[in-house]
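Researcher: For the annotation table, I need structure tokens for PTS galactitol transporter subunit IIC. Please keep the output clean. Sequence:
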Amino acid sequence: MDILQWFVDLGASVMLPIIIFVFARILGTAPGRAFRAGITVGIGFIGLNLVIGLLTDSFGPAAQAMVNNFGFELHTIDIGWPAAAAISYGTALGSLAIPIGIGINILLLLIGLTKTLNIDIWNYWHCAFTGSLVYVLTDDFGLGLFTIIVHLLFIFLLGDILQKDIEKFYGFKNITFPHAGSVPSYLVAKPLNWLFDQIPGFNKLEANPEIIQKRLGIFGDSTVLGVLIGAVIGILAGYNVTEILQLSIQTGAVMLLMPKMVALLMEGLSPVSEAAGNIVKKRFPNRNLYIGMDSALSVGHPAVLSASLIIVPITLFLAVILPGNTVLPFGDLATIPFLICLMVPVFKGDIIRTVIAGSFYIGIGLYIATWIAPLFTNAAQAASFDMGANSSISSLVDGAVWTTYIFVGITKIISWYGIGIMGLIILGGLVYINKIKPAHKSSEKNQVS
């Protein structure tokens, strides 16, 4: 267990190169190419984290300035996902999420109940998060562990379901995102997109980055748009001219640099994806294999970044006007792209739809984050996390994600039975999309032949 915790503590930028190298060698990639792939992915993640850090360092103070400028008073602080991950892995229960996740993934692959080979094992912390909250709520270690298992099954199911949309929109062949902080918004976007299609006039609007740039010229360019959004946020924060200009350029830099870091990640992943595809075609000619990766690969898309930057001030506005909300968005404001990145493929890159849907999603999420704040705070104390001067903490990732409410809420109401029923439904979904549906399509094909 100590060795596992040491490995987890290395962080994604060190864990991933090791995992990529090992998987690439298992899949038959030459040692030199496997080593270079791992190193490239690690460097790509460091670059991505540097860009996200730039966004956090620039938006964090701006958000705090907006709070002070408008006199907001909210007593539960959003501490951000790095702290949430540390709390989740900081207990004996949470640290089991990685070995259990690897074991379940291998089992599902062997029996053909998933197509997703997930190498993004560091992000199993999202499942450890819900399990830890259930443990705090019930004081039942077994139930917390069972929650982690069911949550893992859920992300493999969604990883299989959304891969086609990811490939079609982002162009990532045989790559999916079984990322528990991102996949829930995909299921929200589906019915909302249908609803948007039923609204006369609105269903004719097109606002993806290409169309915006075509109509607005230079002002529609994603980098320029980032500069303009940064200026607006600086004005709302009450910044002086110098600070507004600095924030504008920093925001523009994020818009320009983020896609380049994602491209570097994809360069490192290519050998693994190719090797996996060749192995599957050779040994399992009737099966596809998807490489499960961090949804960070998608956050550099102009539609994701543009919509996210617009949603930042909206999130702060919602936090103030929504009655009953106690959470002050702060640490995870720069992580909003991760919350909405899987909405964007559903809306085909439409920024207007993404902003409306994302604002609705986060608005509801603020109530969830408020609801789990006491449990979150207790979990932090159990993990010996230093909360500083804060007496109540929460986060947007994963505190504002609806699956957190479902997993914890259903446990609160009907305990083991609730999680058990959810597990059976999710398992049924895996059987259907990997066994029944392919068999049905094969039968239809034979009939046509």
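Researcher: And a one-line annotation?
Model: The first helix runs from residue 2 to 9.
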